[in-house]
Amino acid sequence: MKKVRPDNKFALIVYLWGAITGTISGLLSTYYRPAWIIGALMFLATDLFVKLLLGDDLPQDIKELPESERRKAILRRGFWGWLLFWLYFTMLVYTIGIEFEPRAYNNQSLLSKMINGTG
Fold first, then answer.
1. Fewer Cβ close by (within 10 Å): the C or N end of the chain?
2. pTM of the predicted model, to two decimals?
3. Confidence of residue 56 (pLDDT cuts 50, 70, 90)
4. Is 90 contained in some domain?
């Protein structure tokens, strides 16, 4: 079995953190809509989560940086992966939490035809 490269571990951990914070944002938003901001602010803890799970097994380019610059490098490198997972899970959990039901406002729409079985 091949060993997982530190770059891939880093990406998977960032995706996991995005899913966790997105789930928290979605759950909190079902009770109080502006609460999604709390999950967004949890992005600032990404470096702590990555360091906690990876330890010294950081990607080589980040490991070579001085300690003072590692936080910025981790946040910069993990931003887009975290953002996409955070958005997806926030919207998914929020939509499930509010028990969303689509409504067709036009009889000619595809949704209306699917619901009524006239398509």
1. N
2. 0.84
3. confident
4. yes
